[in-house]
Amino acid sequence: MQVFFDPGHAIHRPEAFLMRGRLRANFEVPARAEALASACRAMGLAIGAPPAADTRAIEAVHDGGYLSFLRDGPAAWAALPEASREILANVHPVPEMVQNGARCSAGIVAQAGWYTADLACPIGPDTFGAALGAAACALAGAGSLIEGGRAAYALCRPPGHHAYAARAGGHCYLNNAAIAVEALRRAGLPRIAVLDIDSHHGNGTQGIFWSRADVLTVSVHGDPNRYYPWFVGHASERGEGAGRDCNLNLPLAIGSTDEAWLEAIETGIAAIRRYDAQALVVSLGFDASVHEPLNALAVSAEGFARAGAAIAALHQPTLLVQEGGYAVDHLGTLLARFLDGFLGGVSS
Ligand SMILES: [Zn+2]
């Protein structure tokens, strides 16, 4: 199995993170990706640097104005008097404003609010470069499936599944999984499934494919009534128009352990089997772990091994895209156990 990893991720060092009213150190740190890369090396997996991302593949998912904001915003922000190093919004267009015709001006303060969903996605001068590198990993992984590979792992940092087409959020800027899906579609595969097992709902991915029948999005996550992203991730959200019933949310009670988590994953896998996709993109987060600092779920390392085996049993070309997981000291073990199960199934 090919692994794609861009060492350039390390230039992205977000500082701010708002939690319970306090600004704290951001825990989406470079050490996360380094721990995962070390685990790959220890497993003897070959790690390749991806070629630069094809801009058109990113524009196939993300809004042009938003991409310009990510690229040029930090310089405009730095020109503000007494500005912080990172862009952090102080106002967002609320639904009433949108209903009344809200629009975004060219000013960087307006753009900061327009193009971000929360305070967990600070944008520094190096953020866009790192996000492009992560997207490049996802595209290289998609490319290896297009060439006939059975499995690939895109070791993406920053993660992507909370990013909408025109909005950053929750440590995510470019939606790496969605960019890979779109590349697979444009290569001629008619139907793609996404299985998101990060402990947070994959709200960005859901939003991007909400009205589409050619992509099935499945997310297994902690109950959004008590966990990020708070407003969406409910079982009642099923997609609309042509995409009706092509979105499946499987929220779990806070504190759920292996059995409930694996049962939900099996429910998702059954839906993917019925959908008859030609390829699978897994949004692979490790924050369902019992060791996670802000955990909503309590999944063991053995649970991750069983999830890997269950996913491999679909026998579909599969791209693993790294999402969250912040227990740095445990990430290597969790990845190794997941791949024990997954690669054992792929090779059988
Ligand atoms: Zn997460």
Low-pLDDT regions? none
Largest sheet: 8 strands, parallel
**What's the alpha carbon Rg, rounded to whole Å?**
19 Å
Order of helices and strands: EEEHEHHHHHEHEHEEHEHEH
Which small-molecule species are bound to the chains here? zinc ion
Q: Give the beta-strand count.
A: 10
Architecture, CATH level 2?
3-Layer(aba) Sandwich
Mean pLDDT: 97
Roughly how much helix do the residues carry, as a percent range? 25-40%
Strand order of the largest sheet: 4-1-5-10-9-6-7-8
> Looking at the structure, what is the overall shape?
globular
Number of helices: 11
Number of domains: 1
Describe what you observe in this structure.
Strands 4-1-5-10-9-6-7-8 form an eight-stranded parallel sheet, with helices on both faces. Strands 2-3 form a two-stranded antiparallel ribbon. The longest helix has 20 residues, at 127-146. It has 348 residues and is an alpha/beta fold. The chain has a single domain (2-52, 126-346), classed as Arginase, Chain A, CATH 3.40.800.20. The radius of gyration is 19 Å and the shape is globular. 52% of the residues are buried. Helix 8 links the parallel strand 6 and strand 7 (215-222). The chain has eleven helices and ten strands. It binds zinc ion. Zinc ion binds at residues 198-200, 285, 287, 323-324.
Summarize the structure.
The chain is of the alpha/beta class and 348 residues long.
Salient structural properties:
globular; eight-stranded parallel sheet; 14% strand; 348 residues; two-stranded antiparallel ribbon; alpha/beta; single chain; 11 helices; Arginase, Chain A; binds zinc ion
